[in-house]
Amino acid sequence: MGKRITQDDLYAARIFFNSALPLLRVVIESRRELSSAFRGKSFVFQVSALYPRAPGGKMATHFVVENGRFTVKVDAVHPSPDIELEFSDLHKFILFFSGRGMPLPRMRGVLKNAATFASLLRALLLMASLLQASDAPKKLQDQVLLVKLYFYLLPNGISQLNKAGHQKIHQWALQSPDRAYAFAVTGYPALNSYLRVKEGNSKAGRGEYPRCKPFLTLRFDSPRHALDILMSKADMIDYISKQYLTVEGAPEFAALIGEFLFTVGDYAKGLYLDWKTE
């Protein structure tokens, strides 16, 4: 009998399936040496975990690749993927993708599609090495990519926790009028992302918020200083005083948004597994 799946496990699984795994496409498209390996190829790649309470007994996200172009199907099970990594339960899936353990999944289609799987594995390992790193990369190119991953993952993760009914985040969303929270690095418009919240509903997006000026924008002066805060290497108040971080709009909400960002980070890194439970 497997380990009991907790509500925190379900929150973490939702973040991995809906927010983290889709970043594989971002990683591949950000590196020519990775994207070129899929040129002209068409296949379906799926990552899944067995969970008896899910429809069909499985949770999954899959990628449909057509002539080298990736489309992400979030929180969706494909009936017959060409390549699949299937974990026997959600807990093993979380341990693997948070870097807290190495339970191996069942691998389907790997031998038949060995070259394609090797390319996918390289991309997965790069994504994992970046997201699981405890220190910022030294190369600017890697810093920019990691900030992009964080800026896409964290706002989306807040939205996913809201939709999953996380008590504090959902209560905040229920009480919120129509507001947008944006994240940016000066001089790097490709890193922009945002979170829109309105009366219990939420949606994360990439790029500049299109409707109006955001209610709050956290704007960093460089990718490195963004990572210092996102990786808990520096103090937010200190960086504001040094103008490494500018809070535009409603500064009194910066601490709360920061708390929610780190809540997502705790789930994505498996740190919630250390929390004491009743």
What is the element layout, followed by pairings?
Layout lengths: L6 H14 L2 H8 L1 H4 L7 E8 L7 E9 L2 E5 L9 E5 L2 H9 L7 E3 L5 H18 L8 H24 L3 H8 L4 E7 L7 E6 L2 E6 L9 E5 L2 H8 L5 H6 L3 E5 L4 H15 L10
Parallel strand pairs: 1-4, 6-9
Antiparallel strand pairs: 1-2, 2-3, 4-5, 6-7, 7-8, 9-10
Structure description:
- The chain is α+β, with helices and mostly antiparallel strands and 278 residues long.
- The chain folds into two domains: 7-132, SCP2 sterol-binding domain (Nonspecific Lipid-transfer Protein, Chain A, 2-Layer Sandwich), CATH 3.30.1050; 140-272, 2-Layer Sandwich (Nonspecific Lipid-transfer Protein, Chain A).
- The protein has helices spanning 7-20, 23-30, 32-35, 90-98, 114-131, 140-163, 167-174, 223-230, 236-241, 254-268, and strands spanning 43-50, 58-66, 69-73, 83-87, 106-108, 179-185, 193-198, 201-206, 216-220, 245-249.
- The strands form two sheets. Strands 3-2-1-4-5 form a five-stranded mixed sheet. Strands 8-7-6-9-10 form a five-stranded mixed sheet.
- Helix 1 crosses helix 4 and helix 1 crosses helix 6.
- It is globular and about 55 Å long.
- The model has no long low-confidence stretch (mean pLDDT 95).
